[in-house]
Every structure is written in C-alpha cells, then in structure tokens.
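user: can you give me the structure for this one chain? tokens are fine.
assistant: on it. calling the predictor now.
[tool input]
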Amino acid sequence: MLLRDLGEWELLRRLAAYAPPGQLDDDAAILAADCGTPTTPLVVNTDLLVEGVHFSDATMDPADVGWRAAAANLSDLAATGCGSVVGLTVGLVAPADTPWAWVEGVYDGLSLALRTYGGQLLGGDCSGGRQRMLAITALGRIGPGAIRRGDGQAGDWLVCTGPHGLSRLGLALLLQELPAQQAEALSPGLRQRAIEAHRRPRPRLDVVAALERSQPPGRPWRVGGTDSSDGLAAAAAHLARGAGCTAELCRDNLPIDPELAALPQGERWCLAGGEDFELVLALEPAWAQALIEALPGCRQIGALTSARDAASAGSLLWQGSHHPLEGCTGYSHF
C-alpha cells in the first residue's frame, strides 16, 4: 500500500504503534517534568516544510518561508499550552545551486518570528538534496496547564480564536485561482489580510494567558484543544475523537469574513482550507463564555455531544439538523 492510499492520519496511526500509548495524540510532546523544571515541563514539536508542498517562490519570498516555518511550530506549542518559547532548531536541505540570498532570507524570517514571540535559534544541521526543505524542532514550556486533544467532554463548547479561510483565500489570490469577477469584488483590505494570513500567520501563544485570566475561580484546569493548521473541521473532529464524542458545528456562527462567505467556495475554505493557525478549544460553557469575552475574535462554533457509539466518535454534524459535514477532510500532505 502506498502513502497516498493511506493518507496522513492513517500513516500517523500506524506510526503510533512504535511510541508509548498516547504519545502521538497531541500537537506536540510533553516531556516529564524532570526534563524541564518541577513546575514547567518542556514541550517538543517537529514540523517539515517541503518546497512544492508547503511553500514555493510563486507565493512567498524567502523571509516569508522562514517566518512561516517558525510560526507553524510555535502554533503547535501554543496548542499544547505553552506559555513561553525556549527556541528552535533548523534542519536545512537545499540543492547545491541554491543562492545564499535565499538561505539568508529564510533565516531572517525565522529570526524575526523568534524576536516577536520569544526564544532563540538553538542549532540544527544542513545537507544537500534535490529539493529545498526545512525541518524545524521547537521547544517551549507549559504555562498554567497542558492543552490536550483528548481533554474535551460531552457538553463542552467548541470555540475558535479567530477567522478561518483567509489563508486559503490568500493562496488563491497569489496563484490567481479566482475568476476575475470574484477577485475584483473583494475589498483591498480583505485581499491584503488574506495574503498576509497566508504568508505571515500568527501563532496564538497569547491564548494561553487569556485562558488563565478567564479560568473560573475554583475550577480545575481542563482544556481540550488543537490548532487548525489542517483545517477548522479537521480540528473539531480531532477534539471529538479524542473525547469519544461527536462535534456539532453551528453553521450560522462559522468564523468567516462576510466577503469570503459570499464566494461559492467560502464556506468550504473556512472549514477545510487549512493553514489558519488559530486554536480550536473544548471548554466547559462558563469558561468558554469568559474566554470569548476576554479574547477579541474568539467565538463559539459548536459543542461536543455524546456519541451514539464508538464508531461515531469523531464525526461532524451540523447543529440542529444533525446532517453530516461533507467535503471537509482538511489538508492532506500526501
């Protein structure tokens, strides 16, 4: 069987057999406390960015590539509950005829992201190869508590921290995929925000502090969560599967810009466009409401409900109608 037949998530499921139970269930690995300090365990995450799959010269310059490489990893740290960034290592693969200016630009982008969000370049390696690739490992420290995909429960609200679909719209604009009439109807402001969302995504490390501020007094820390790099619907499905629940999404409250919603592909891009790098969280209603009030742009998008049986855990439904979401499998790396 080929990798394209397996798909990313089945591949990960099979690879998980080589690790301790549950080790590959979250956005990043949380190491034992004695690997960090008694109160701040270390979190480790690794991401690959491959030319032609995750970036190309047609859509971003080298500094954008570097920023995006850092941001993708820092987003996974945020999605695991990191309150601070230690730093990252960089593995660089590039053909021998790659200009130094391209490498310099990538590292300028990486450095700018680290200056913005904290941490430092810790080291790495480089090698020649047929295709440009960046392998990033990021390290951070847990804040007030860990965020895990499996910590949601039936009755939790599903909330997301910002708009979705903008990165996919930005990619479409850069590649001139949209019909001219659709592209010309978009406001300059939305076009600029969409391209910026694709080239310079913002890892939501600020959400961890907002969760701490909004935590109801006396309530234990329990936050289910993941980032939406593979799509909003995929993130909701991960949380539902981890909790053994069904995710019901509210169609009237999707986090989508009205101009994007007016496009025929707008809803699909909101749900499955991917690479928005917001957080999707499962929280008890009182905490969710407090977070929505404390964090601009945060909104409820649905809820976790008890699954009918084990086979339906992880399924996505439209709230009220109980119709399944279709065509929302999210981004596939294969």
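assistant: here you go. The chain has two domains: 3-142, 147-318. The domain at 147-318 is CATH 3.90.650.10 (Phosphoribosyl-aminoimidazole Synthetase; Chain A, domain 2).
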